[in-house]
Fold:
Amino acid sequence: MLSRMQVQIRRISTSSAFLVGMALYGLIGFLVGIGLVVVAGLEVPAGTEPSFVERMGVWAIVIVPLGFGLGAGFATAIAAALYNTVTSVTGGLRVELRSARAPRRKAKSDDDSSASSREE
Structure:
């Protein structure tokens, strides 16, 4: 039987929340930037002014991830600071953890019997 343990998350590091938010949303921003580059690659009809996205072009791969990453990094750091403030009143989140069971190993007799049944 698996053993269960309840833990309580009382504090979240604002610097690690910033880094996680920045990394996750920076990656999302990179994907959005690639999409913007594809859109910017479409031809502009003659006689029209190119849009901001079309002018930005390949720079979208650099600018959008930085904007997404920094914005989300600060947002997650602020959320972590607010969480830390609220936990002084509420006590924090309770999480139930259980220990992982090691995978069951085959007994040597199991291997021998399966090999003999294949030969027949």
In short: The two ends are 38 Å apart (CA to CA). Strands lie at 4-9, 93-98. The mean pLDDT is 82. Residues 4-102 form one domain.
